[in-house]
Structure formats: C-alpha cells, structure tokens
Amino acid sequence: MGHYDPWITRQETIVASLLSAVSSDSLGHISPSVYETARLVTLAPWLTGHTERLWFLVKSQHRNGAWGDGDDGYRLVPTLSATEALLTVSRRDRDVDEITRAAVLEAAERGLRVLLGWLNTERGISVPDTVAVEILVPALVTDINTHMDELEWCARPRLALPNGTDGELLARLRDTVRQGRALPAKLAHSLEIIGQPLANLPWIQPAEGAVGCSPAATAAWLGETTPGDRRSSVGYLAAMQDRHGGPVPVCGPVPVFERSWVIAALTSAGVWVAIPDRVVDSLDAAFGELGVAVGPGLPPDADDTAIALYALTGTARARSPDCLLAYRIGEHFSSFPSERTWSTSTNAHVLQAFGTHDNARPTRYLDTIRRLAGWLCEHQDEHGWWTDKWHASPYYATAGCAVALARHGGSAADGTVHKAVAWVLDSQRADGSWGRWQGTAEETAYAMRVLLHTGKHPVGDAVVRAAARGCAFLLRSEASAHPPLWHDKDLYTPTRVVQAEVIAALWLAHANPRVAALVERDGGDGGGGGGLT
Hints:
This protein is mainly α. It has 20 helices and four strands. The strands form two sheets. It has a two-stranded antiparallel ribbon. A hairpin with a 3-residue loop joins strand 3 and strand 4. The longest helix has 22 residues, at about 100-120. The chain is globular and about 70 Å long.
C-alpha cells in the first residue's frame, strides 16, 4: 500500500477538514434557493439583504425566462415564486432606482411569458413530487393572477393550474387556520402558503427562532414588520441570509441532517473516520421518542432517524432502532405520519439501520428485515433502477436500495441487485460519468457505489473499467460545483453531504486494486484524467 500513501494522506486531510467544518457549523451548508429567496423578497422586505436577494433573482434567471434547475417541471415552482416576488416589487417597492425597476419588470415579463407557455397550452407541464408542490403551485398561481389583475402592463391571459393540481387542499388548509385550528406539524415547513397573518396563532411555536426549519415560513410568521419581542426569529433570518450574502437556503439549520449523512456516507464506504465527540453528542441529544428531525421546528421522520442511527453505529452512543417501528405501515415504512407518497430511499435507510443493528442481535428484527427487503425488490423498475421522492436522480435511490439489499436482503435479493448493476453499466456516459440530465460528480459517486459496494457480483472486467472511468471523471471534476438534485420546495444541494459521497466513491475505487491500477495507468480508459497518486 505504500505506493498509495500520498493519496491516502491527502484524502485523510480532506476528511478531517470536512468533519471539522461539520462539527463547528451549527447551520449546515445548503445551496441558496430561488423559491425561498423569492418568498423573502415578498414577505420580508425589511430584512437585511433585501436588495441582494432582489438582484439574485434577476441574475439567476435563465435565458428562456425560467428559474431553477433540472427540466421544465422542476423549474415550475421556482419560476412561479420568482415571478410572483418580482411582480410584488413592481407594485410595492416605490423607492427602487430606475435601473433596478427596469431589470425587475423585464425579468417579471419574461417569467410570465415562460409560465404561460407551460401552463396555458395543450402540451402542459409535468409537476414533480417535490415538497408541498400540491399547495405551493395553486397558492403562487393565485397570487400571480391577482397581480395581473392589478397591473395595467400585464395584459395577458391569467395562468391556469397544471394538470393534477387544484386549489381544494389549499382552500381547506386556509379555512382550517381561519377557524383557529392547528395544521399538521409536517406543514410547518410550508406555512408561507397560508396567505394571512400568522403572528398571533398560538399553535405556531418557533424552535431556535425558526418556524418549520424554513426562512419563508418564519418570515410569514413575523409579518411585514419586525416585532420587537421576536428577536430570535429575526436573528434566525439574518443568520440564514448571511451565509450566501442575501439569498437563503430552502431549509435550515440542519446540523443533525448534515452530520449524520456525512458520517454515514464515509463510514459505510470504509473510510477511516475519527468522529468528533461534539458530533456524536449532538446526534445522541437530538433523539426523542420518535427519533430525530431534519431540523428545529419539524417533527421527527424515519429517514433522518435511520441515517442518524447508522451514523452512531460503533460509537459509545449506538442506539436500538426500535423507535423506527412507529413508522411501519404493513410491509414498508413511512417517512412521517400521513405521508402522501412513499419513499424508496427512506425504506433502504431503514433496512440498513435494522440490518446493521441485527449484527449484534441476530434474531430480533429478522421478520422486519425480510419483509422490508421484499418490498424494496418489488418496487424496483423493470429496467433496474429505483426513483424516489427525496431526490431527482434515480442513481441516488438505486445506490441506497442496491447497497442495502446486497448487505441485508439475503439471496432472495441477488437478482434485484444484479439488475441494478447492469443498468448502471449500461447508462454510463462517454466521459465516464453518470447523470439524469448531465454527468455530475454526485450521481457518478452513487453509480460507483452500486458497482463497487454491493458485493453481489464478481468484479468482472466491465465493472472494473466502468468504475475506473467513473473515478477518473471524479478526479477531473474535483473543483466543479454540484448542481442541485435534492428535493425540497425546489431542488437544493447539501454541499458537504455530496462532498462526502464523492470522497466515499473515490475511497471505494482506491480500495479495489484492479480499479486503482487502471486509473493510475491511463485515467480509466486512456482518456486522461490523472491517477490516484
């Protein structure tokens, strides 16, 4: 192994730096959100950074008039949010300079044009299963149409709702609030859609200043001015906008999410990790009767609980996965109560949590493991992949499901895992990467996990070549940004989590002598890209 010592030393330095950042950061590093930033433009013009948020929207608009990432469907919510915010500014902010006003009006006009093309034509648009999309879209369409009724220059047809959405659920939720009744806890993250003052509602209780772990929901609760007795929430918003100089992430703070997912990604790939005591203590302290939540102000969920349980495996604070049983529904597990659509990745993570703990007590969870593995096998696409509600890429869900089944699904899952490996081999791009819309380092890391981490197939020449080409792509892409692929109200990137996944994939490649040798020799396929040393 001496030949690879320089590479190992460099990776250990990178891992140590990553863990230090994760340990010391109480917010978590999430990419800025067009949707959430636009909501603050509308809801909190008094907050520091308003001008910066406004110009962030103007400058992040695509040439065709849309905002956001991915295909058109994924761009619908951020485009609606940004367009609504710019229309609000055009009606409300009379003190903006002429250059800013001209830029706002031009961007709003282009946003309306692309929205009409998506919503008011027979072609229509496909709405992805992102967080609260069934209420966000009707709320924003209604608000934009109201603006158009009031603005003389908006001589255009009013926006129609896309197929599969209506305003009935939104109307019921707003009526519930008007009657003084509380909404389900999971909706705290999207309270900005209520459309009326929330400040005096007694059932809204900020946690660490945040309402629903959301800048937008917090701003809606605060109202149009800054109440003097709510300094912690104003401070929360200020901290959220400070991270990106005005724009805000779609959720935060998320230290439990970030810490547990980073540790799980590294340790599951065999990366040697000295987990800081502060991180272990914080994860352990986050547990309640039903596990952990993604962030303050949100209820616990099965996904984050399962990952946190796995992250604590092998530490002095290792826990039983019994709390996960509260989420069981027949053969599978829900992410949270009253879930609208199920998640394959959550169930893969739950299988991993039970299967890992099962090593210590081999009979206690066998029936749960068997039935859950069977459910995951049944929900594999016929082509070999899985899709998921928490991520835009099938490579994310496929990596989670294939690895969990390979480790804990028994021989009954062998065929399922083989099919996943075959799909990954068949879908590699010419440059060695993998990706839904384009080759990305994140999706390439997931694909390499399927090839090198399942262990349910002989590591034949095809797998070695594909993994080496993927490794070479990752090495060439070390300085590249990671496009948003994770689902919230719009797409986002948990930067440090993705960095950990890339490190884990490189480590797996290095640990396989045949792959490492091929990468060192010619970059994987003779196309350059450097070696592992």
